[in-house]
TrEMBL record:
Keyword tags: Carbohydrate metabolism, Isomerase, Metal-binding
EC number(s) from the headed UniProt entry: 5.1.3.1
Binding site for a divalent metal cation: 30, 32, 63, 173
Metal-binding found in the keyword field: yes
Amino-acid positions noted as binding substrate in the UniProt annotation, renumbered to this chain: 5, 63, 139-142, 173-175, 195-196
Catalytic reaction list: D-ribulose 5-phosphate = D-xylulose 5-phosphate
Gene Ontology molecular functions: D-ribulose-phosphate 3-epimerase activity
Cofactor stoichiometry and binding remark: Binds 1 divalent metal cation per subunit.
Protein name (Swiss-Prot/TrEMBL): Ribulose-phosphate 3-epimerase
Cross-referenced PANTHER family: RIBULOSE-5-PHOSPHATE-3-EPIMERASE
UniProt source species: Alicyclobacillus fodiniaquatilis
Entry-linked Pfam families: Ribul_P_3_epim (PF00834)
Amino acid sequence: MIAPSILAADFGKFAAEVEDVINAGCDWIHIDVMDGQFVPNITMGPQVVEALRSRFHCTLDVHLMVQKPQQVIPDFVQAGADVITIHQEATPHVHRGLEMILQSGVKAGYALNPATGLDGLAYVADIIDVLLIMTVNPGFGGQKLIPATLDKIRAARQRLVDLNRKQVRIEVDGGINAETIGAVKDAGAEIFVAGSAIFAEVDRKKAIGALTTALAAGK
C-alpha cells in the first residue's frame, strides 16, 4: 500500500494534486498535521481533511504530529478521517488517546520517532490497527531514510507476532523512494508513505509505478 503524503504536494492546486495521485492508483492519502510545537513546522488542520472528505472517497490517513493530541482528535474524527495516528512522545496518556480514536469508530495508529524504542508497544498493541515507524525525524519532507530504522521495523514485526497481534499493519514514513522501499518492505512494512518521490515527479502514475516495481523486486 503506497500512501502519498500531501505535505509534498503543490498547495496552489491542492485538490488537483490529490486527484492526480488517486487516479494514478493510490487508495490512501497521508495527511501530515504539524502544530509548530511537537515539530517545528505548522501545516494543515481539520478543515483540509473535511474538504478532501467532501470530494474524495479514498482512505484519509491523518498523522497527528501535535502536542496533546486528545484535544484535537474529535475535530479530525468529525472532519472525516479514516485513520488517526498519534505519537507516543506527544502525550503521557497515549493509551487514552488511542482509545478515544477507536471509540469514535476510526482506526487507531500508534507512531514512534526513530529514537523511541518498542517498549510501549505491549501496552497498546491490543487497541491499534497501525504501527507507524518514523524512518526519519518528523517535521520536514525530503529527508534520507535512517538505516538503523530497518532493524527497528524487523523487531517491531517480531514483537507483534509475539503479542499475537500480527494483523497490526506496519506503516513507514520518511525517505521512502524506489531505492529504499524494497528494503523497508523486506523488513516487515506494509504501508509506505511517500512524499517527494511522488509529488516531485511530473508523471505521478510513472512515479507510483516505479515504487510498485521496486516493491515487487524487494531489495
